[in-house]
Each structure stands twice: as structure tokens, then as C-alpha cells.
Amino acid sequence: MAWDEWEQLKAGVAERHATPMQINGLQGRDGSAASAGGGTGTLRHKGGPWTKAAGTAGGLQTSTITAKADLHRAHDGTAGGLAGLASLGALTSVLTSWEERLGRVRAECGSLEPKLRQVAVEFAEVDAEVGNSAKAVAVPGTRRGE
Q: Are 112 and 55 in contact (CB under 8 A)?
């Protein structure tokens, strides 16, 4: 491959990657990303998805406790019936491994749940504040409730 051809390929790649990434595919007059609705492009959040995620984390935390208890019940009595067999050691190793995994999942969910709930509260406060500010703007020729 000739050196000039290589330089042309590099220049073509640089041109394709010079365009800024845009979520909505619109571009403002100054080359920056613009919002589809013509606004400032500010992202709005609601607490619902965060609260739901927190609930899911809490539910998973609870279900890992149940799963761990079920796992122990399933292994009850196996030691006596498998005494002296190599499979007892493997079964015990699997039980220990799953107990550790479930414990880590439970701990992670326990850590995430309050954080997700806090995010929901903070975003809801921001949304309420922005909503109140918007309601305070007087628009001539309109009445409330229309």
C-alpha cells in the first residue's frame, strides 16, 4: 500500500470520528447537539424507575436468604448417606461455593437498595422544584385549568 493511500485512509477515518455523538440525531446551529423538542437538551428524571430498581434489589436480597435456607435443607442428611465417598467432598464444596455467592449477592443488593432509593428521592425533588418554577411563569392570555 502506498504511503499516500494510507494517509488518505487515516484522514477519512478522522473525518468520520470528528462528528460529536448525539442521542437524538439533531444538531444545533453551532454544531452542538440539540434537543428534539427545541429545548436546552437537559435530561429529566423521575423517581419511579429508581424506586422500582430499589424494590427489586430488596426483593432479591430477601430471596437469596430463602434460597440459602432451601439449599441447606436440600443438603441435610447427605453427609450420612455419602460417608466415605468422594462425591461428598464435591457436594460440600459446591454447597460452600453457592453459600458464598448468595452471600455476595445479598450484600450487594443490601448496599444498592438504599442508594437507589436515595437517587429516587433526589431526582423527585429536582423534578418538583423544576415543575414549581415552570408553574410560576405567567403566560399572557391563558387561564389555569384550560
A: no
Do 21 and 10 form a contact (C-beta atoms < 8 A)? no
Greatest mean pLDDT range, 12-16, 95-99, 108-112: 108-112
Cα distance between residue 83 and residue 113, in whole Å: 42
Residue type, 98: W
The backbone region for 77, taken as left when phi is positive above 0, alpha when psi lies in -120 to 50, beta otherwise, is left
89 band by pLDDT with thresholds 50, 70 and 90 = confident
Helix (H) or strand (E) holding 93: helix 86-135
φ, ψ of residue 33 in degrees (nearest 5) = -70, 140
pTM score, two decimals?
A: 0.51
Q: How many other C-beta atoms are found inside a 10 Å radius of the C-beta of residue 140? A: 4
Q: The C-alpha cell of 9 is what? A: 485512509
What is the rounded distance in angstroms from the CA atom of residue 98 to the CA atom of residue 34?
49
Q: Is the CA virtual torsion 15, 21, 26, 29 positive or negative?
A: negative
Residue 64: pLDDT band by 50, 70, 90 thresholds? very high
